[in-house]
Amino acid sequence: MKAKYLILLALGLGLTTSSCNDFLETQPSESYSPDLVWNSASNIQYFIYGRYSSAYSFYRGFSTWDRNYTNNMVNSLGNCPAPALGNITPSSNYPTGLSDFGYIRNCNMIIENCTNNEALTAQEQSEFVAIGKLLRAMCYYDYARKCGKFIWVGEVLDTDSNFELPLTSGPAESYSYVLKDLREAIPNLPTSGISGTPTRNYALALLSEVCLTAAAYTNDAASLQQNGVSLYQEAINAVDQISGVSLDPNYGNMFNENGAYSSPEIILAQYWSAENTQLVNTSMQGIVANIPNAQLTANNCSPLWTVNDVVLFEAWGDNWPSQNLVDAYLVIDDEDGVAKPWNETSQWLNNTKEIGQSEAFQNYTYPNCTAPYDDRSVDEQWVIGYQTTNPDVDISDLMYNNRDARFGQSIIYNGQEFYGETCYMFYHGNFNRYSRDPYGEYAPIANYGMRKGVYTNVSPRFIWDSYTAYHEVISRYGRALLNKAEAQLRLGDVAGAVATFNQTRTIHGQLPASTATTLADAWTDYKRERRVELFWENDWYFSLLRWGMYGGEANYGQAPQATIPELNEPANYIEINREGNTAMIQSMSHQNDMRMFVAPRGYLFPIPQSLINSNPALSNADQNPGY
Questions:
Q1: Which contiguous run of DSSP H or E holds residue 106?
Q2: Residue 591 above 90 pLDDT?
Q3: Element (H or E) spanning 412, and its range?
Q4: What are 417's strand-pairing partners?
Q5: pLDDT for 205-225, tens place per residue?
Q6: pLDDT, the chain, mean
């Protein structure tokens, strides 16, 4: 542990619980003397530190939720992931949890052993108990948002306890436990702490999101409200109580080394030390390309990197930003100054025309080859093509200039610099999807690379055994503000909601403010804002589910629990020609045209069949509907 921040290593005094008891996977007896921990405030603190990494893991699933379950990203190593195709069964291997009973037991031990503990001051007792309840709520909320039900264990079990515990009856009961823990914890949590430890601000931010999800899945049930206050209003109140943080004017720095410890916006992050962390143990390993000059030469791609070896790009990038995601980043119109989709601006409409597939194909050449376009993948679907009408204009400039500032801070696009090299995504460029053989492997398959979450000082290069510090943001003020805006929309406060989400739009995006005045327009702008603001932060999939549960303006005027269009649309890529006068968009192969969200069952994952089979208190009647 450093003086100013917490590096989560093998903390917790090496304290573990034995694994023994059937489906609960825990045993009432520990492998250490209780006196070693519970009779010392400092040892209790270290025990608590040892629980943080597990708690944070529930909210660091960027590689799962951002890549596999939505079309924000496209897989380059194989077919579209099975979850995106609706191929989920009770026997599937998917990340629902529901079985972290050892972790839950540790939370319960903190709560019980710190209550009326004479070795602690009254303040220490209340603070440690509050942390135990927060950690327990973090686990159970993750279960609730995925499956709606879980096995509630609210005490430390002993050898005489009944281990055959039932599932909760449904979302209302599940969220009652989560909300109770958070509400009881918040008043007694510390208001400040070293970076990497949860504070009251984090619990308030988490509460705002729990309230939204609970309200979505229970129709703002009166049984969950406190003193008759709507869960949406409680979410607003929670965000309003967050203090001492502000939006960071440099959005990108929050996700690299420059703002890791200094950003005024980060509420909670998990940190790893450069002393014992290799690239392979960070998310960067899976979002940075592997494109040596030898591959560029072999695949007729150019220009070569300036240093004639792998040097920088030898990671295992396997999922890449899609054109669907890129479409969400607005462009400021040259004529009227309004932020619009890139293909609706005056500069685009005045300088391009739509063209057909055969005409577009004639404009694609690469070194040692002539047109027409040669696509190695046979099942990609044509979407649209464009050509410039002004020979002095580059189509990339029309598309990417004056764009939402978060775009270039999150995504590498054609002509942008990365580690001193210029990355060309144009046809058979050095950062193009054809730069690797087999086709697309470890290369940006949709012709966009990742910048968000990538440190700028990895040395000597991007290779698996390079040592590097790293962090991942768990919670920040921008996300909390968007939670508040959503609650305001649900309460019909359009003006208030627009004012709230305009804060991230104008400060982070450096875009003109939204002027939406109707509920439908406000939802359109809000959803777009949330998508670009929280990309690669474990949010888009769960937000889409929540909006689908709301229905109405939140999901294109449909009834609650209807299909979700964004989860059914193929992932697209863009191909810009080398001359910069033609661009075409196509849907990716790899089964992307088979994406399917099955409503209403898709709003919850199934209860794992293994859990039902191992627990005599459960039966197939406990399964979620549709499975």
A1: helix 101-114
A2: no
A3: strand 411-412
A4: 422
A5: 999 999 999 999 999 999 999
A6: 92
> What's 63's DSSP letter?
I
pLDDT-based confidence at 356, cuts 50/70/90?
A: very high
Two tokens at 111?
Answer: 């709560």
Whole-number Å distance between alpha carbons of 478 and 482: 6
Decide: 486 and 231 in contact? Cβ < 8 Å. no
CA 116 to chain CA mean position, Å: 39
Q: Which residues contact 493 (CB under 8 A, 6 or more apart)?
A: none
CA distance 255 to 245: 16
Report the pLDDT value the prediction gives residue 99, as an integer from 0 to 100: 83
Classify residue 162 by burial, with Cβ atoms within 10 Å: 0-12, 13-18, 19+: exposed
- For the chain, how far is it from start to end, CA to CA, in angstroms? 46
**Angle subtended by helix axes 200-218 and 540-550, to nearest 10:** 40
Q: What is the pLDDT of residues 313-334, one digit of tens each?
A: 889 999 999 999 999 999 999 9
Question: Taking a C-beta distance cutoff of 8 angstroms, is the pair 595, 80 a contact?
Answer: yes
Question: Percent of the chain scored above 90 by pLDDT?
Answer: 82
Measured CA to CA, the distance from residue 347 to residue 5 in angstroms comes to 47
Asked if 575 contacts 427 with a C-beta cutoff of 8 angstroms, the reply is: yes
- Give the burial class of 250: count Cβ atoms within 10 A of its Cβ; 0-12 exposed, 13-18 middle, 19 or more buried: middle
DSSP secondary structure of 189-250:
S-S--SBTS--HHHHHHHHHHHHHHHHHHHTS-GGG-BTTB-HHHHHHHHHHH--S----S-
Burial of residue 20 (CB within 10 Å: 0-12, 13-18, 19+) is: exposed
DSSP 8-state code for residue 317: -
Distance of CA 46 to the CA centre of its chain: 29
34 has pLDDT over 50 = yes
pLDDT higher than 70, residue 350: yes
Distance CA 444, CA 422 (A): 14
Contacts of 105 (CB under 8 A, 6+ apart): 17, 26, 153, 156, 157
Tokens standing for residue 466: 């390079």
Classify residue 479 as exposed, middle or buried by CB count within 10 Å of its CB (0-12, 13-18, 19+).
buried
> For residue 34, is the peptide bond before it cis, meaning its omega torsion is within 30 degrees of 0?
no
pTM (whole model) above 0.90: yes
**Least-confidence region, from 329-338, 450-459, 589-598:** 589-598
Q: Which residues pair with 388 in a beta bridge?
A: 352
| Six-digit token string for 489 | 């929309």
**Closest to 516 in 3D by CA, of 532, 535, 500:** 500
- Rounded Cα distance between 510 and 202, Å, is 26
Q: Do residues 5 and 195 lie in contact, with contact meaning Cβ atoms separated by under 8 Å?
A: yes
Which candidate, 124, 454, 471, 125, places its Cα nearest to that of 267?
471
> Three-class SS string for 521-562?
HHHHHHHHHHHHHCCCCCCHHHHHHHHHHHCEHHHCCECCCC
For residue 139, count other CB atoms closer than 10 A to its CB. Answer: 24
pLDDT in tens, 233-245: 999 999 999 999 9
What would the pLDDT profile of 377-431 be if each residue is shown by its tens digit? 656 889 999 999 999 999 999 999 999 999 999 999 999 999 999 999 999 999 9
- Bridge-partner residues for 472, per DSSP? 270
CA angle 384-321-527, nearest 5°? 85
